[in-house]
Amino acid sequence: MNLRSDVADLLTGAGILDVDVDEAVADEHVRGSAYRRVVLVTASSRSRDRDRAVVATILRDPHEMGARTAVVALVDRIARKVTGPAEFRQWSAGLLPEIDQLTAEEPREFIRRRIHDWLFHLSVEEGHVPTSAELAKVTDWMQRLLAEESASLAVLTLIAESGNRKKTRNIAKDRARSRKPRTR
């Protein structure tokens, strides 16, 4: 495959007909924008059948940063749609062979880390209260996301005490304080 046919196939498969393929091939910014649109269409589909092929095609792009960004956007969108960690684990396992094809370690590990973060997040949403050691294994980004979104007082308390960043700890403290029942 070559970049032109990859971009054309992605756009056609997503039903995006208003992007000039030659312009997208020539300009990584236009291509990145096209990939974001492909990801939106792919993630909004009820079927997950094309996801692995879409990821494989995007990851062949020579501009690794743009490709990584698009794949991470898909991971983020699917993680927000799934019913729980088991479904996300199964979905992401199907992508790992494609992700592992990346020769550069940084983008490969970044995507793998994002998948790990979402598995952690989804397990917390299902009621798992992590230990401080488990919390330490997720990124600062995920700790902050949990501090901002978790409804669990136990999780907020843990992040307030053990979060990596002061700002994240403060967000969790403020949210935990507002969730505690007030005594008279």
Description:
The structure is a single chain. With 184 residues, the protein is mainly α. The chain contains eleven helices and no strands. The protein has helices at 3-14, 21-26, 28-44, 51-59, 64-81, 85-99, 105-125, 132-136, 140-149, 153-162, 166-179. The N and C termini lie far apart (70 Å).
Largest sheet: none
Task: Tell me the radius of gyration.
Answer: 19 Å
Quick check: average pLDDT?
A: 95
Q: Would you count the extended β strands for me?
A: 0
- Tell me roughly what share of residues is in helical segments: over 70%
For the record, give the distance between the C-alpha atoms at the N and C termini, rounded to a whole number: 70 Å
How are helices and strands ordered from N to C?
A: HHHHHHHHHHH
Low-pLDDT sequence parts: none
Figure out the total of helices.
11
Look at the helices and sheets and give the structural class.
Answer: mainly alpha
- Tell me the overall shape: elongated
Strand percent estimate: under 5%
